[in-house]
Design brief:
alpha/beta; 226 residues; Rossmann fold; seven-stranded mixed β-sheet; binds zinc ion
Length: 226
Amino acid sequence: MRALIVAAHPDDEVLGCGGTIAKMAKEGHEVYVAILGEGATARHSDPSQGSGAAVRRLQECSRAVADLLGIREVIVHNLPDNRFDTAPLLDIVRWLEGVLDRIRPEVVYTHHGGDLNIDHALTFRATLTAARPLPGTPVKAIYAYEVPSSTDWAFQSFSTPFRPNVFVDIADTLEIKLEAMAAYDSETRPFPHPRSAEALSASARRWGSAAGVAAAEAFELVRALR
Ligand SMILES: [Zn+2]
């Protein structure tokens, strides 16, 4: 089985499905990651100032994380951080269509469309469009993952809340997920931030307890064909 993870920023792939990626890779499946944005320039008031080193550092982290989790390839697009709404949606869709044509994944994982982060919401929309079920499409299933500090911060938003109905047992890969997140050292935060190791672990335990296992990642099934 070939899986593609579509993420808005470097680190979303780990936060949303790091345990599931490591599990799929261990089971012999091919896992690819497409990252739409560069993930760093929103930290600076002038996006052209001082961002190059941070972007390069994030890309190095992505490659280290790919080795750790067993990801075959990380495909990067470099859209401006937290400004995906300045790019024509059609351009994002076309880039993703190119990735889908080349990789031909059977399963696609992407963001929950109701996330607070604008890049996440647009990534969901672009993925759903690029992977629309035209005759001959390789994509048999699309799942949405949550990203702590975005899915959980969309309080009372107009979109539907994250209501997972698919759970992946990550009891054996939770530690690798935490290790991978630690590799994104510029993106981790101390507890009680949702991107802290403690909070990520608590979330895995919480979903695990909902699904009857020691630790789990939670997904919404968006579309499936059997
Ligand atoms: Zn993100």
